[in-house]
Amino acid sequence: MRWTHKYLMLWRQMAGQRLRYTAALVALAFAIGLTFLVPLVIGITIDHGLGGEPINEAWLAKIISAETLRDGLGWIGLLIVGLTVFASFFMFLEGALANQASESIVRRLRDRLFDRLQHLTCAYHDEAEAGDLVQRCTSDVDTTREFLATQVVEVVRALANLFIALPVLFWLDWRLALISTCVLPILVGFALVFFRVVQFTFKNMDEAEGALTARLQENLTNIRVVRAFARQAFEQEKFDKRNADHRAKHWTLYRVFAVYWSVSDFLVFVQMGLALFAGAAFVASGKMPVGELVTFWLYVGLVVWPARQMGRTLSELGKALVALQRIDEVLSAPVELDAADSPASLTDRLAGRITLRDVVFGHQDDQSVLDGLSFEVEPGQTLALLGPSGSGKSTIVNLLLRFYDPDSGVIEIDGYDLGQLPRKYVRSQIGAVMQEPFLYTKSLRDNLKLGQHEAPDEDMIDVANCAAVHDAIERFDEGYDTMVGERGVTLSGGQRQRVAIARALLQDKPVIILDDAFSAVDTKTEAMIVNFLRQRQGRATTILIAHRLSTLMHADRILVLERGRVMQQGTHDQLLQADGLYRRLWHIQTALEEDLKQEMTAV
Q: What whole-number distance in Å separates Cα of residue 578 and Cα of residue 542?
């Protein structure tokens, strides 16, 4: 990324807060002006108040006499204190304004990031690590906030000190000024090199921290699986590797900082020592009064220390630019695109006729998951999909929900090309229960009424009965107000699936998709749910995916898929008459059920 683009990113982030930053700079100008008066007052007081020298400077003689100066030393002390207090006040004001601006920017930036994450393509989320995305939304944003809160104004402070104090030094004595600033170019050059090194080192450290966060997030999400397979030691080893890498990258960054601070401190003290030594020689030879040397030496400090601090500012700038680049990678990632205009004839509720014609789809360069797939479902019908893993069943679901768009072919709903309909509208017409149902860390009531907050409790209980989960909920102490743990861990797998089914039924969409929604449900409960669904048949077009043929046998039509193609289709009875996968699976499953019944009878 070109450096100009990086700085433009930083400038764009300040939009809407530039006036507040301007006010902070005005406050900073007052603070700097008052700070620069203090050395001048101290020097004049030493020479003409304490030293007793007559005032020869015409501009100063017009303001005050040496006698008045000597008589008012107490007031001079109060003046110095007053200047310091007012300078501190303006510095506080500058800091408060800059912090307010940075917090507003960061809040807007986090909102933009979260909104972007909601609209990024599913392909992006398939490849991205959740932990790394969390890192970009938290740590990288905080790095940006720290720079915007403190270092933006510090850049101006350092430059102002440099460009104001240097002319004053040369005005006081150009020979001593040359001696007192001879190390300054080395210090500035060293700071610029440090800036480049910090950018590279911080980028490596930040990426290592993102990988560590991703490892931790994945482990916590799947903690039950880890324990079930006794993989704690293996997971600990993987985490230790990521942690060691993060520590090494962090340690490298700290070593870079340590080298800079030690070398820059050495250069600063050398510069201050040279200024003091040369100034003492000037005073001893009568070329400069003591008070002027004090003023000069204080101004040297105002030049050298900010130059040394410039390294910190540049390091924070480097870190902020790296963080902004990582943030910009998310903000510039492609989002789900919708058609500019929706068909004027769209209704609030579609009938639910689904048509696929010669649909081809594949993930990136892999071979096609769907290869010229075609079928049609009439409104209110139930279509069952059967096939081995990788045959394209879940891919059909993803295409219908417009998580992806087909590479070629057409998908229609009620005659409308799905690709020409807004994704939000398409998803508002489809109720889906995915293979891994997700429940929020909320009450069961809130999870059931997701998207249907105004639904009466009677309807909620009705669909809970249909999903055979009402009795289980009633057995909880809090009933429907029972809080669900993260990702629904307080419920069994079957209970989670049944809650998800009830939630989909409550939404009462014209199309319902059940993608392996009974995998964790026992056969008896499954039969109850299927029976309820048959009673509701005709209210919605239903697409049913399952591996148990007892779940699919009552569907209006069954498609047997293999390698993205329809190998067989028909009703349950028709498929039993034909030689193929369906009949073989039916014989296997019925034989297993008979064996199980005999064993149970024997017991």
A: 25
**pLDDT grade, residue 61 (50/70/90)?**
very low
The structure tokens listed for 540 are: 């919605």
The dihedral through the CA atoms of 434, 440, 444, 447 has a sign that is negative
Residue 138 has pLDDT above 70, yes or no: yes
Pairwise CA distance, residues 247 & 414, whole Å: 57
- Beta 541-545 vs 430-433: how paired, if at all? unpaired
Domains and CATH numbers, the chain: 14-172 (1.20.1560.10), 354-434+510-602 (3.40.50.300)
DSSP letter string, 23-84: HHHHHHHHHHHHHHHHHHHHHHIIIIIIS------HHHHTT--HHHHHHTHHHHHHHHHHHH
**CB under 8 Å to 209, separation ≥6 — which residues?**
135, 139, 246, 249, 250
Buried b or exposed e, range 346-385, using 16+ CB within 10 angstroms: eeeebebbbbbeebebeeeeeebbbeebebebeebbbbbb
In three-state secondary structure terms, 567 is strand
Taking a C-beta distance cutoff of 8 angstroms, is the pair 298, 42 a contact?
yes
Cα 558 to Cα 174: distance, rounded to the nearest angstrom: 94
Burial pattern 273-297, b for ≥16 Cβ within 10 A else e, equals ebbeebbeebbeeeebbbbbbbbbb
Q: Which two tokens stand for residue 382?
A: 């139930």
Contacts of 212 (CB under 8 A, 6+ apart): 131, 239, 242, 243, 245, 246
Give me 533's structure tokens: 């669904």
3-class DSSP assignment, residue 415: coil
List, for residues 432-458, the tens digit of each pLDDT value.
Answer: 888 788 888 888 898 888 878 888 889
Residue 587 is encoded by which pair of tokens? 């014989």
Q: Which residues 6+ apart lie within 8 Å of 227 measured at CB?
A: none
Structure confidence by residue, pLDDT tens digits, 284-302: 887 777 777 777 778 887 7
pTM (whole model) above 0.90:
no
Question: Which structure tokens are listed for 323?
Answer: 């963080």
Q: What amino acid is encoded at 365 in this protein?
A: D
